[in-house]
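> forwarded from #structure-qc
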């Protein structure tokens, strides 16, 4: 059995609570999350939407050993995951021990709050000779597996959720399909439905928008020969992601190029600026 170590901001989050079973099921218990540590231990006295289970409670429920530090997780584990999916500002600090270890490490979406931080995290991995990648699971949607990338000139993307947390999913798919050469972004929505237009190199364009909790992730893709592909709903992305994650742990095969992850973070970062200045193009080219 391979021992997986989990480093997080707080452990009681949706990704951390589902990954233990997903990994066991995918690998027939060959990969098991054995150790976990969260830098923030929630207060059990909170209630309602503010309540999150203390680390001790969460670990007991998942039969995972709670350890005292990120360094202890790294020491005891064969491979590593750094989660904190909704708090990317925590990733740089949470990654320090893992990325100095040389052990294969997955860093959850959203990778970093900005491009400068993203580059520092990649440099940490290089300095530690640590194989590492990050991705939204939406990149691995079944419907995107065999889609032709060459010749795409326009994509329209839709999905649920708020921009801060959910934009990463649509941007991940757009960069996966159109490449990392994004030039500028412009806000074209409003507070009720945040939306962006993104210009890529070669006068290729994408739009993305957030249309409420019941809106599935979907795409309309147009090619330069006027061919069209409609993805009515992205499916099976979490099972496919777990399969790719396990392959990374097994082989060290990096699933997402560094330049794509940095471009994704750059679009998201400049998207915040664009949303404050609707109708104005904001440069998002990476130096």
């Amino acid at each position: 059995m391979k021992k997986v170590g989990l480093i997080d901001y707080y452990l009681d989050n949706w990704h951390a609570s589902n990954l233990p079973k997903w990994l066991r099921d995918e690998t027939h218990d060959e990969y098991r999350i054995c150790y976990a540590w969260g830098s923030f231990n929630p207060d059990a006295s909170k209630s309602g939407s503010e309540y999150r289970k203390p680390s001790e409670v969460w670990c007991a429920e998942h039969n995972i050993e709670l350890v005292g530090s990120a360094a202890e997780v790294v020491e005891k584990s064969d491979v590593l995951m750094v989660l904190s999916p909704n708090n990317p500002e925590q990733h740089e600090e949470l990654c320090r021990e893992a990325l100095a270890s040389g052990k294969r490490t997955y860093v959850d979406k959203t990778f970093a709050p900005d491009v400068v931080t993203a580059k520092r995290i990649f440099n940490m991995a290089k300095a530690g000779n640590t194989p590492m990648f990050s991705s939204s699971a939406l990149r691995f949607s079944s419907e995107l597996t065999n889609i032709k990338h060459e010749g795409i000139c326009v994509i329209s993307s839709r999905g649920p959720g708020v921009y801060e947390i959910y934009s990463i999913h649509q941007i991940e798919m757009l960069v996966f399909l159109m490449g990392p050469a994004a030039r500028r972004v412009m806000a074209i929505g409003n507070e009720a439905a945040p939306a962006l237009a993104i210009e890529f190199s070669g006068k290729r364009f994408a739009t993305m928008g957030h249309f409420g909790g019941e809106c599935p992730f979907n795409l309309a893709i147009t090619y330069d020969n006027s061919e069209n592909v409609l993805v009515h709903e992205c499916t099976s992305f979490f099972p496919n992601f777990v399969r790719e994650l396990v392959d990374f742990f097994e082989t060290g095969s990096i699933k997402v190029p560094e330049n794509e992850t940095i471009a994704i973070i750059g679009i998201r970062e400049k998207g915040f600026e664009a949303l404050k200045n609707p109708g104005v193009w904001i440069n998002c080219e990476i130096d």
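QC bot note: The radius of gyration is 19 Å. The chain has eight helices and 13 strands.
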